[in-house]
Task: structure prediction
Amino acid sequence: MTSAVSSAILLLFGAALVKLGISDELLHYVRPASRPWVFAAGLALLVLAGWSLLSQFRPPSSPDSDDPRRSVTDQADAEAHLSQAGSASGGHNHHGATRTAWLVLAPVLALLIVAPPALGEFTANRAPAVNATASGQKASLAAGSTPVELNMLMFYLLSSAKPAALAGRPVTLVGFVEKQQPGGFTLARLVITCCAADASTVKVTITAHVPPPAVGSWVQVTGQFAGVGSDADHTPALAATATTGIPAPKNPYG
Amino acid sequence: MLLLALAVMLGVKFFAPGLLSEPAVAAWSTVFVAVCVQASPYLVLGVAVSTAIAVFVPPTFFQRALPSNPMLAVPVAGMAGAALPGCECGSVPVAASLMERGVARGASVAFLLSAPAINPVVLVATSVAFAGHPAVVVARAAASLLTAIVVGWIWQRLGRSVPVPRRFTHPDGSSRAERARTVAAHDITQSLGFLTIGAAAAATLNVAVPRSFLAHFAGNDVVAIPALAALAIVLAVCSEADAFVAASLTQFSLTARLAFMVVGPAVDVKLIAMQAGTFGRRFVTRFAPLAAVTAALAAAAVGGWLL
Result:
């Protein structure tokens, strides 16, 4: 029955992936483009695990195993192979294989019980700043004087590559409060490439005349570009005219 | 173990909810789940390929496709790595299947090292991350291929004393579909299980090592190359994303950042856990140091020449 246990665990993991594949929670962990792949992988695991479970509860129906005793022999042969392997490598035996299956339960339980939140100010404080030189040249903003809503990353890229495009233009940014400071706060957004393990940070220094919102809360800030800082990352500044608290966006990463 | 894990999680959830709102613990669990979720599609793809090799591709195919001299087979297998698009976790079960199908051990490890590093997806990601420096893409491909070939040759000569465990194989009498199911279920459970250990290690180091600490090593390449090689090993960033992480380490020289991108797909905590599970501990205690040192030296040499 031990392999029935591993199949059941695999089934749970597949179900967790499928569930993630159809929920917004996915965006806490990986980029949106991964959605179909995560869903498909979950589906494949469900099929494989379901098939394994079924075949453990009924005699094999393959054409070349018409003898009902065949499956018993197969099982014994397989066990023999495994114990051979086990003695050769030390620990790589059937027992080890089932033990390995228990490990797969860790992410399943983490997802079902803990449902880890999206990364926030803790990571923004520590992750490296996003690299502006790489894609800065591609940043562009259609000319005009109407207020425009900008992605934090785009604002940051423009501030270093084409500051002239931002001059005198009211912009709206969405991010979370990383820390409060005299005369304002730091607005941050994490950027991920593949998954939350590779997060880097975009920061904007906000100068505001209102009391700064709580650390970690999501805000929408409208204001005007006010030059870049003298720090190593050339953090841009925004002189805020309006700051509104908003609920966390579906995709927390920019 | 299950009950213990469940008890710990439920206990934390209901009796100490404060612990989960502890930012380091929350960030740890997010990174842990993220690595597992992000790697799963690649593992499924890798296992699909490894199952196809183990069950549907006849061993004679590899005898015909690869030069019969095992030393010559190493560079061919290294180049063939370019054909498997994905990141490093998927190539472990594929390499295991290759060995089982009689492909020489040197050629199999050359494929294991080159597949995650020189495939088109990774190289395109690298060119996007280093938009101003096209030489970095060439240097990455060259240094990774060099690493794969050198390690493959050394392993072909010296790896004989390291037996690789035989995987679960059904007797040939059972139907192909049954064998495919058994191999796939075994390989995916194995890879996912060891992936969780690697993900836990990577999440711990991700949360525990503040990046600002790195600035101390940036000045001199003699220190910077080993420092970024070590960072690549502990962070275990997927090879499709590591170029963006490398690009953000602006205080380091291009050669040191190249070392980060050449070492990472070859050796990291996630791969060490998965290889220990698939090939055994004796394998990984010899292979991981060999691959890490070779990759760092290859990056230093190619970086010094091209960058």
